[in-house]
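Q: Hi! First time doing this. I have a protein sequence and I read that you can turn it into a structure. Is that right? Here it is:
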Amino acid sequence: MFEFITEFLEKSGYLGVFALMALENIFPPIPSEMIMPFAGFVAARGDLNVVGVLIAGTAGSVVGALPWYYAAKVYGCERLRKLADRKARWLTLNSEDIDKSLDAFRKHGRKAVLFGRLVPAVRTLISVPAGLSNMSLGQFLLYSSVGSLAWTGLLTAAGYLLEDNYKEVSKYIDPVSKVIFGILLAWYIYRVITYKPAAKEASTPRKEHERG
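A: Yes, that's right. Below is the predicted 3D structure, encoded as structure tokens:
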């Protein structure tokens, strides 16, 4: 993974930074923790401008968040609830879990997007409740941009300041990212195996409430 990212950025420059950060938000296993520090290292070496790296990385991150936002907005809450109840074991949640999550998001939506963009894995997923809760595009772009700029700035600064030592640090980044992905995968498998469906009676009050 590290070799692919380094070679790609060396050849493609700012466009490569933008493309990889956009892809990282659509397909989370490509980690920004590897993309932006190396882009910062390339900037420290003089091959790229650090401001250009920050703009490209932030723009790519925000653009990459939009497909999930619009997908959730178009798919809608009701269809997601039905899907969750049909595929509850594999999604490891049901319609009641979705309702609770959305209620929490509606209370803290702006903060959730802002700080969610600073957390690995959550960075991508935070776009889904934003779309489902019909958060305005303007608000989503504003808070997503601020959070993304802070995240890309932190990672770029790390690569920029490390300079020549970055190659030594890179030996640990790739294995650590794989371990994190392995932990997330193991957690998902555990949730699937241990999932227990809620009693059917629990869904009755909500349906009656919705009819009323």
